[in-house]
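[Solved] Which block belongs to which protein?

Original post:
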Amino acid sequence: MKAKILYIEDNTQNFYLVNFILTAAGSEVVWAKDGPEGVEKAALGWADLILLDIQLPGMDGYAVAQALRGNPALSSTPIVALTSYAMAGDREKALAAGCTGYIEKPIDPGSFAAQVERHLLSARSEGGAS
């Protein structure tokens, strides 16, 4: 099944790398360049999974995750923090904000698609994204 993924990321190079890897693995990736655009695109309800950078200008990823979780239509959509924040407590902070998973940057191009697929499968097995 072709997964539909929303990637909320302000860095063009990061988006292109993730898009290249996930598209090659058979997914469709849509880009939102900042938090407000991400919240708006997510509200359309088509995404199977949301990848979320935490270090966004203006509205950071924690605020975005909280806004997304405030939308009942997105309650079962997995949100995976994709971030260079890798200090002690950062994973827990992302999960507390509403993320269901956490992947550290820099990503490993050889295993990244499989990591994303595991989050999709986990959500599907729990009755989340279809």
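(Second protein starts here: sequence line, then its structure tokens.)
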Amino acid sequence: MADNQLVTLSKEFAVDVIKLCDVMKRRGKATTIINQLLRSGTSIGANIHEANYASSKADFINKFQISLKECYETDYWLDVFYDAGIISKEEYDKAHSQCSKIRTLLIASITTAKNNA
């Protein structure tokens, strides 16, 4: 159940990150580092999706741990863009909330998978 929710949430988040990065590019702000957010924000879901085809329990856990790292990186970039005044509070709050929810689910899933290993 949580895995399906993670897939759905992370895909929705990736789409929202793509749209946010597009908005920032059109504003002409921080164009050289926007790709950092774009890469990390879309990598979360890609690794979660890839985990569904893991070759072992260890591979599954590893993919989720990579997704978790990408969540932390994405959160960092959101903080930077917000603190620099490049994204609004509303844009930040929405993206940060989505990222936090995914992170919480990832931590719970990793813990469960490790306990069942």
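Accepted answer:
You had them paired correctly. Confirming on the second one: Helices lie at 2-27, 34-51, 57-83, 89-116.
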